[in-house]
């Protein structure tokens, strides 16, 4: 089943919610409406009982997302433009905080704000032909918001090199840096994404959501505070119905039957 809005398409494929930025002529750039529709698609996927994994991609075969739509930068006045930038920042937070697992299907180049979307997803699978980078510096801008995610993925020197030079990375180098989880030939992209999504779909949704929230909350805490937080989260985890089911299934040597509670 597939339904479309003007610039973002939502489809269910098995246990996946496939969310597609559909502006191929504009290199799937992030217009204000795309940002809003992506927010709506995330909420829809969370509420969709058929969807256990959200897969984010771009239309076509060349570009995942080329970043912000520079043609719209002068619209809405200064304060309106500022609110638009805040909306993109909110999208990154919303995507990272999605209660369901998220996978970026990187079908092509992921640049600037498009790279931010990849980094905000839990996992990412890229086609070999894809390139990654932050070219904003070449038009006199700096990748301010997505830089917060880049800093959390790579070391200081490499992060600064990327944002200060604007250089593009081939997908294999992006894999080495930890920007993506898998790199495959374009012809194998759907199969690789599908296999990863199915693996995630087979886990307890309740425990995945609890674990994701704990992971990101602990990420920026000092070590003693992180360990204190995570010990309490484990105590919550072991009280979950699915934890009892998982342990019982292990002892009985059978597959678990998750209730997602």
Question: Notable features of this structure?
Answer:
261 residues, alpha/beta, 2-enoyl-CoA Hydratase, Chain A, domain 1, Lyase 2-enoyl-coa Hydratase, Chain  A, domain 2, 2 domains, seven-stranded mixed β-sheet, four-stranded mixed β-sheet, 10 helices, 11 strands, 47% helix, 18% strand
Explain what you see.
The chain is an alpha/beta fold and 261 residues long. It has two domains: 2-201, 2-enoyl-CoA Hydratase, Chain A, domain 1; 205-252, Lyase 2-enoyl-coa Hydratase, Chain  A, domain 2 (Orthogonal Bundle). It is 47% helix and 18% strand. The strands form two sheets. The protein has a seven-stranded mixed beta sheet, sandwiched between helices. Strands 5-7-9-10 form a four-stranded mixed beta sheet. A hairpin with a 3-residue loop joins strand 1 and strand 2. The longest helix has 20 residues, at 77-96. The mean pLDDT is 94.
**Can you tell me the CATH topology of the largest domain?**
2-enoyl-CoA Hydratase, Chain A, domain 1
Q: Which sheet architecture does the biggest sheet show?
A: 7 strands, mixed
Task: Give the helices and strands as they follow along the chain.
Answer: EEEHEEHEEHEEHHEHEHHHH
Total tally of structural domains: 2
Helix share bin: 40-55%
Question: How many strand segments?
Answer: 11
Principal-axes shape call = globular
Distance between the termini: 27 Å
CATH first level of the largest domain: Alpha Beta
The oligomerization state is: single chain
Short description:
By secondary structure, the protein is of the alpha/beta class. It has 10 helices and 11 strands. The model has no long low-confidence stretch (mean pLDDT 94).
